[in-house]
Design goal:
- The protein is mostly beta strands.
- The protein contains seven helices and 50 strands.
- The radius of gyration is 32 Å and the shape is globular.
Length: about 950
């Protein structure tokens, strides 16, 4: 009864509070001289009478109309209306219970007589001012936590959305640059400013179109024009240092993490250093930290890999973090960036990383066959050690006002030392064992990658076009020694195969790539684009196989049938030409042609040489109308050199893969559709996309399965491969007072029509997945934050031939995060993720729950110090599971994980802007 009374009291109180906020003020803003001229995107700021604290604000729409809801009755408000080139308009309004809805009708603003004589009243600075080409936010109107950085401030601004990777959009347009007092900060790396500059040193945030992007593409539509954010500081910053240090330990098994990342800058020179180490499957720093403070953004990233749990590698260099297994990782590096007196930007960086990982993978698969299902189980134990070094530089030279030259050299060295044990068992539908295998392996690999890139960009005078040329020189050496000792037993009929061999595989690639893109404006509505991509290839794949000699225990018995060297040398070109016609303000039509050539000579040690001489000619097209675009692009690619090598890969004697030198290039036709729209007035973002690709002469693996379960695969060319995917996304932001709400929904779907060939039975496999989702987030004054998402997956595979059995399963995945900052200086946070799968390949528990929680204590000035106690995987799930459909098989894989552990971590954030570096201000007084 007591709980019921409390609940009713709470409901009555809530109703009373909301009842007090049912007032509204509406009106129309117009020019006092010409009443038909409405004032669009003017700022209407609302204050309580006699109070200088901003209550709320609203922008007038494109018809000059404004409406402010959620105001209290019985309160007198003061309106301060600000519009560009107009004098400030002030008016007091009384809302009463009898008259809660006030319509002010038309309000007329007069133009400014003289800007120089204007007197600014600081207490009434509008939160937003919209000028002709600039939106300006007053930073003091948007309250943040004491420890907040610029990114936290930007999240408060209307129309601003920040993705998980730190990228920013304003009113649906991508932000291309962040300037500080009109200048580039840390070599133009935008997240250096957003992630590190304190919010309390910002005076104004200005948003404007990227003029350089519009110069590069004069026909760029307004909806596609990137934005530039300029941060106006309260006081200029000339030097300083920022970063963080952290360290922690926990139980069981001596869990630990430690690291530090620092930036020092003085005028136009910046130096970054970092180091980290841990055994808790985490990257030492977030990917945005490495890009920003670590300096990878300033030098450039050519390749990126991100796993499902946040681990990543950049330019082939791992920074730690594993979605499965148990990993120890460490790394260190430094980055130097400077701007010379002649305007050249110079950058040099070095990074080193190492990881030591233990993976245990249990996999069950079921193949549907007309003769009965084939069941396979594997247990794989893998110990992997990787060492990586990357050194690179970048020189950005402004030759003149129209010409820019960028030179980027880099060297990457990787070493791998892996040991593995694979246990395999294959059974028929009656659970009768067909074969089993024991396979012990060891890999010694060394990879060196040299690259030199030079890019020349030249704009034609009077914005008549541009010339962009890029030359890339590459040399890669990948040297792999693969030892494997296996025993395979077959039971239909009974036989055994013992194998102890070394596969010495040395792959060397050299190449020269020239990419030229020329754009010429012919008339105001017509422009010409000509592009060519020319490649010279010189590739070698040398494979030598040796059996172990029992007499001397050396791998020196050559096996000619399993040894072969392939040399591939020649040229490839991809040539494109198109005419872009700007039919109307919103419609652009761009037809074109594509002409590709392949001229390659393939020579072998003991196989006849052959040439690959192919040409490919096809039309292309691009159509853009307002926010909608459709693009058709054909392509042409030759088979990988490893596929044409006429040597079997027998490292797994139960699954042997052959080569096929008769493969021909694959022809692909692709169609892309995209619709993107951002509704400024309603803060509504929605987009729809879809793409389709059609392959002829695609490469698939034709397999044969013997009565003993031995599988042999051979790559072949087939026609009629179709891949379709599409998606639809909606998101709505509500930012009011100190409350923020985000709602989102959508779906994505994938469909593949592939060919499956098993035991000479060929069938189309139609694999479909549909995944609708919903998500939401609530932020109440940075005290209470709740975010949640739910995905429902529908997965099926259909086969034309009854030799294969149709497959169906469903997935449910939900993830939630709760953060509570109460009482002051304490942060409670928890995440909960559940993954449920209806498929039961091997009767494994289909419901996996992962629950993490942490408590953080903040102390010292601006909360720069943090002490965090966290518990990972409270329910001790200790595994990860993935189910997938491939060809006629469904695979269920489980991976080991760290399981439950507790960690106590101390973090110290360093932010020193504008003070002396060194001298009396020592490092620990920052």
């Amino acid at each position: 009864m007591k709980k019921l009374l409390l609940s009713l009291s709470f409901l009555l109180l809530t109703s009373a509070l909301f009842a007090q906020k049912n007032g509204s003020i509406t009106g129309i803003l117009a020019d006092s001289a010409n009443h038909k001229t409405t004032l669009n995107y003017a700022t209407v700021s609302v204050y309580k009478a006699g109070d200088s604290v901003l209550t709320t604000y609203k922008l007038s729409d494109d018809k000059g109309v404004f409406k402010i809801n959620g105001l209290q009755t019985g309160i007198k408000y003061r309106l301060v209306i600000t519009a560009w080139q107009y004098a400030i308009y002030r008016k007091e309004v009384q809302l009463t219970a009898e008259n809660p809805l006030v319509n002010l009708g038309s309000l007329y603003l007069s133009t400014k007589a003289n800007d120089l004589n204007e007197v600014n009243i600081v207490a009434e600075r509008p939160p937003v001012i919209v000028r002709k080409d600039t939106i300006e936010f007053n930073a003091e109107s948007f309250k943040t936590l004491p420890s907040a950085v610029v990114e936290d401030l930007l999240k408060k601004l209307p129309g601003v959305a920040i993705a998980s990777d730190g990228s920013i959009q304003v009113n649906g347009k991508t932000v291309s640059k962040i300037l500080v007092d009109g200048k580039e900060f840390f070599g133009g790396d935008q997240q250096i400013a957003t992630k590190n500059l304190p919010a309390n040193i910002i005076d104004k945030i200005q948003v404007m179109d990227d003029k350089e992007a519009k110069r590069a593409d004069p026909d760029l539509l307004a909806v596609n024009t990137p934005q530039v954010i300029n941060l106006k500081l309260k006081k200029a910053i000339k030097q300083g240092a920022f970063g963080k240090l952290y360290g922690g330990g926990g139980l069981p098994n001596g869990r630990f993490e430690a690291g530090g990342i620092m930036n020092f800058f003085r005028d136009t020179t910046q130096v970054s250093i970092l180091g980290y180490g841990n055994n808790v499957n985490k990257p030492g720093f977030s990917i945005s930290d490495i890009m920003r403070i670590g300096g990878m953004q300033r030098t450039g990233v050519n390749s990126m890999m991100v796993n499902s749990d946040g681990g990543y590698a950049l330019n082939g260099l791992s920074f730690g973090g594993a979605a499965s297994g148990i990993q120890k990782s460490a790394g260190a590096g430094a980055n130097f960036n400077t701007l010379t007196k002649k305007g050249a930007k110079l950058n040099l960086k070095y990074f080193f990383g190492l990881s030591n990982q233990e993976n245990i993978t249990l996999t069950d698969s079921r193949q549907s066959l007309g003769t009965g299902d084939l069941l396979s189980s594997t247990n794989q134990n893998q110990l992997n050690k990787t060492y990586s070094h990357n050194i690179s530089g970048r020189g950005d030279f402004k030759i003149d006002s129209l010409t820019q030259l960028i030179i980027t050299p880099s060297v990457t060295i990787n070493s791998t030392r892996n040991n593995g044990l694979l246990l395999t068992q294959t059974r028929d539908i009656n659970n009768v064992q067909l074969n089993n295998g024991y396979n012990e392996s060891r890999t010694v690999g060394d990879n060196t990658d040299y690259q030199l890139s030079a890019n020349l960009w030249k704009d034609l005078r009077k914005s008549k076009g541009s010339l962009n040329m890029t030359l890339n020189l590459t040399k890669k050496n990948n040297l792999i020694d693969y030892y494997n000792n296996s025993i395979s037993n077959f039971y239909n009929p009974n036989s055994s195969l013992v194998l102890d061999q070394l596969r010495d595989n040395n792959i060397r690639n050299q190449g020269v790539n020239l990419n030229v893109n020329f754009n010429k404006t012919i008339t105001k509505k017509l422009s010409l684009t000509i592009a060519t991509n020319a490649n010279y290839l010189d590739n070698e794949n040398a494979l030598a196989t040796f059996y172990k000699d029992p007499s001397n225990q050396a791998y020196d018995i050559a096996v000619p049938t399993l040894s072969q060297t392939v040399n591939q040398e020649g040229y490839k070109t991809n040539n494109r030409a198109s005419l872009r016609w700007k039919a109307t303000k919103n419609l652009t039509i761009q037809p074109g042609i594509v002409f590709n050539t392949i001229n390659l000579e393939n020579s072998f040690t003991s196989y006849p040489s052959f040439r690959q001489n192919f040409t490919f000619f096809a039309p292309s097209a691009n159509i853009r109308f307002k926010d909608f675009s459709i693009d058709y692009t054909p392509s042409f690619r030759e088979p990988d050199v490893s596929y044409i090598q006429p040597v079997a890969n027998n490292t797994n004697p139960l699954y042997v893969q052959n080569g096929n030198p008769n493969l021909v290039p694959t022809k692909t036709h692709q169609v892309y559709l995209n619709l993107y729209k951002y509704d400024v007035q309603h803060s509504l973002n929605y987009n729809a996309y879809g793409n389709a690709s059609f392959d002829n002469d695609a490469v698939i693996m034709a397999r044969t399965i013997s009565a003993s379960g031995l599988q042999t695969a051979t790559p072949i060319n087939v026609d009629g491969i179709i891949r379709l995917n599409a998606g639809l996304n909606f998101s709505k932001d509500i930012k009011k007072d100190k409350r923020q709400f985000t709602l989102g929904t959508g779906f994505y779907t994938n469909f593949t029509r592939n060919l499956v060939q098993v035991n000479a039975i060929t069938s189309y496999a139609k694999i479909l997945s549909i995944t609708p989702r919903v998500n939401g987030k609530i932020n109440l004054n940075d005290v209470f934050e709740l975010s949640t998402s739910y995905n429902f997956g529908i997965n099926s595979s259909r086969y034309d031939d009854t030799y294969f059995t149709n497959i169906n399963y469903f997935t449910h995945m939900s993830e939630s995060e709760l953060i509570v900052r109460l009482p002051k200086k304490l942060v409670w946070e928890t995440t909960y993720r559940i993954n449920y799968n209806t498929q039961t390949v091997a009767g494994f528990n289909n419901k996996i729950q992962i629950w993490n929680a942490a408590l953080t204590y903040l102390f010292m000035k601006n909360d720069r110090a943090q002490l965090k106690f966290s518990v990972n995987d409270i329910l001790n799930t200790n595994t990860r599971r993935y189910v997938s459909i491939t060809e006629n098989s469904i695979r269920d894989s489980r991976y080991n994980n760290l399981g439950r552990y507790a960690l106590l971590t101390f973090t110290y954030n360093i932010q020193n802007f504008g003070g002396k570096v060194g001298g009396k201000d020592t490092f620990f007084r920052f």
